[in-house]
Structures are given as C-alpha cells and as structure tokens.
Amino acid sequence: MKVFVLAGEASGDRLGGALMAGLKLLADVRFEGIGGPLMQAEGLVSIFPMDELSVMGITEVLPKYLHLKRRIRQTADAVLASGADVLVTIDSPDFSLRVAALVKAQSNIRTVHYVAPSVWAWRAGRAAKMAKVIDHVLALLPFEPPYMEAAGMDCDFVGHPVVAEPQASAAQIVEFRTQHGLADAPVLLVLPGSRKGEVARLGPIFGQALAPVLAQRPDLRLVVPTTGHVATLLRGIVADWPAQPILIDPSDMKSSLYKHEKMCAFGAATGALAASGTVSLELAASETPMVIAYDVSWMSRQIIAAMLKIDTLTLVNLVSETRSIPECNGKHCKPQEITAALLKILSAPESQREAMRLTMERLGKGGESPGLRAARAVLKGLGR
User: Rounded CA gap, 193 and 215, in Å?
Assistant: First the structure.
C-alpha cells in the first residue's frame, strides 16, 4: 500500500509521525510526501522543506502567495504521479485542501484530512466546502465528529498523540536539573511558537513581560525549548531578554536527545508562558501550569475577531469545558497583562490541575495510542 502524506508545520509533523508509525505496525506501507523530522524518522523523504508552509495569519500569507501556489501544484502533481492509494493531509487547511481539490479533480484517490477544522469556533461553512474534496476526517477532539458527518464526510475521533507521550520520571528531572545547573530553582518554560513569524512577533513581547516577573522572582530560571528552523532567530531575540535562558535547540543534538531534554524540561517546570496552539496540550500532559499569549497582525486580528464564535482559544479550556487557563490574546497580548497572569499562576499553580487532568482523560489517555487509532481509521476507510 502507498500513502502520500503531507504536513505543513511542527504540530502536523508530530501527528504525521504517529500515524505513520501506526500504519507501519498494521500494514505493508510505503510513504511519499512532505513532512518534518518526526515524519522523516518514520521513513519519509520530504519533497521540499516543510517549514516553507509554516505561515500563520491572513495578511502574513499574502507576500508568499505565488510561491505557495506553485508548491500546491507541485504537490498535487506528485500525489497524482505517486500511484498512492490514499492522500492524507494533516492540518494546514489552506494548503492541504487546495492540494486535495486538484487531486480529486483528476483522480479517484481517497482523501483523508487529519485534524477537523474548528467549525465550532469560526467559519462553520468550511465543513461543507471541505466535503467536496475530502472523504474522511480524523478528529482530535471528541465533540467534532457530528459536525463533519453532518457535512457528508466520514469522521473518526482518534484522540491526540500527546496523551500517549512519555513523561519524565523524578530521577530524569533531577538529572536534567543537575546537568543544567538548575539545582532546586523554580523553572519557567517560555515557548514563543514554532513559526518564524510568530516567534518574531511574540519573542520581544515575552521578553518585556518577563522583566517584572524576574524582578519579583529573582530565583526563577528560564528554559526555552525551540525548533530547528527558528532557533537562530530565537537566539537573537533572547539576547535582549532580562535573563539568558537555557535554550534547548534540536539543531545542537540528536533527535532522541532533544525529545528527552524537552520532556525533562516540561517535567521540571514550575510554570510556562506559551504561544497558543498544541503546546497547551503538551503542558497539560505534564501538568505544567501555563499562561497562553498570542497575537497576529492588526488586520488579521480584526478579520478573525469578526468571525470567532468562542471565548477561548486554548484547547485545555475547550476540552475541559472550563476557563482555567489564562489567556492574553490579541489586544490583550501586552507585556503588563502577561506579567500579571504569570505572577498569579506562579503563586497558585494548583488552580489548573483538575482541568489539565480532565483534558487528558477526554482526549483518550489510558487507551490505545492515537497514532494507532488513526492508522486503523485510515485502513478501515480503504476497506483493509
């Protein structure tokens, strides 16, 4: 069996790697497509670098439109030439669904989209539009299948891979602290995103927000796990922060060591300041209290705000049906507001624990791994 699989950002690469691992356990499968290091570790040779597709925000896409359009055509042609039994597109809908449309217009290749569009949050019409080119959806959240099925697509809730990821043991955390000279100091994770645009926007804001926090908590140590393609940019940004963080950079180490270091950093953390996104689930899995902060360009903010149907962007809040995780998004993504939220969670970290545990339970913790569940769903759709 041949599977063409494509992802456009780090969170999609993570989902794709887990799916590929599951498919390899269940079938004799070959892969082609686009992906990052986790998918490449499962045997994918990416036809071009995944980070070319890691663009967020409406106005941010415009300068790269022509290049992205060429990549869409190139990718669709590669799918058609591959002889694939199924095309699996992972998140990045602006790219993925355009590729799927071109493929469907010229073939009967089955199309699967991994990560349901958040039609419960904004742009409800996306489900009906998506149903024209997608046969089957793999949903990360338990309340999503009815929305997809109502639009005419098959949909399986497969859970989120974060629930199956290992957590650091007490001994591993002690070793991490010793190795980095942290002793018993409280640790604040700082996670300004995995895309260059968001890191460039959020990094300086985060740095300004941290100055008063460090003034009140001078024993606090900063740890910043990053991704390879933003590491150089981030090194320049953190040079202006009020304290130099420990940077966990995958370009400095083997993939397995980076995963271990990141896992231990999450386990050692007293709290976290993070960009909005999948990272909130990683923090919930390690029971790390967090503040979420995010912003896009002014124009993108106005457009998104006009369409938004929910009052929170944080997945932990949505899945747990609480509002336990504080957010500083959009016009509230200001240093002083972030500072106040950080000081509050550092003084009362237990306030988020129950919401994080409930989130993990609802996402499938303790059951079959989501990657394997996703693989079973793909094979079921193919009648295998």
Answer: 25
